[in-house]
Design brief:
elongated, 7 helices, alpha/beta, five-stranded parallel beta sheet, 12% strand, single chain
């Protein structure tokens, strides 16, 4: 995986959010030597920019409000975030932690270590994304199991079936209607809720 990440650095779309100065110029030049496609932006954008893989964000005290606004924007996937810091005071570190940065570059910015930092940050970000997808998949599976369990209980209570027969009933209905077990369970739960609602009105 590490070798693949190193290969992927060439052509990586990097957004450098940093005031226009010599440090930004040096940083952009080195990123381009690595093979990244670099764009610059200042001031801090109000929303996460689309079409970028990595963002290098300067953590400045005088733009804290703008950084907070950026961090609160959007619900979709965010780019790999690397913070650029000048100080190690508590307020700066707090903002770095809140940002979810997976790497930190200290000023004065030096070319040495940038490739390592970029590689490690990208690796951590990809691992995090993989874990988030796995967790979401497990949560969907668990929710489906809970729905099937609820549907079984409805059939057991309503039709006097035992647990095995209730499960088989759901399975047969799902196959007959060409639905998944989860979809069939949802339909049974929904039908039962409608029935209970109508009975209340009687």
């Amino acid at each position: 995986m590490a070798i693949q990440i190193l290969r992927d650095l060439r052509g990586l779309r990097v957004q450098v959010v940093h005031a226009p100065d010599n440090e930004r110029l040096s940083l952009v030049e080195h990123l381009r030597r690595i093979g990244c496609m670099v764009e610059t932006q200042w001031p801090v954008p109000a929303e996460w920019p689309g079409g970028c893989d990595v963002m290098l964000l300067a953590i400045e005290h005088d733009v804290r409000d703008q950084i907070h606004q950026l961090l609160k924007s959007g619900d979709g996937p965010r780019p790999t975030l690397i913070a650029i810091v000048s100080y190690e005071d508590p307020s700066t570190l707090q903002l770095v932690l809140e940002s979810g940065a997976v790497g930190v570059i200290e000023r004065p910015i030096r070319p040495f270590g940038l490739l390592t930092n970029l590689t490690i940050a990208r690796s951590l970000w990809l691992q995090k994304r993989t874990m988030e997808k796995q967790i979401a998949k497990l949560q969907r599976k668990l929710t489906g199991i809970q729905r099937i369990q609820k549907a079984k209980s409805i059939l057991m209570d309503g039709q006097g079936l035992n647990e095995i027969d209730a499960y088989e009933s759901i399975r047969r209905q799902a196959m007959a209607k060409r639905l998944s077990m989860d979809e069939m369970a949802s339909a049974i739960i929904h039908a039962n809720e409608l029935l209970q609602y109508r009975l209340k009105d009687v």
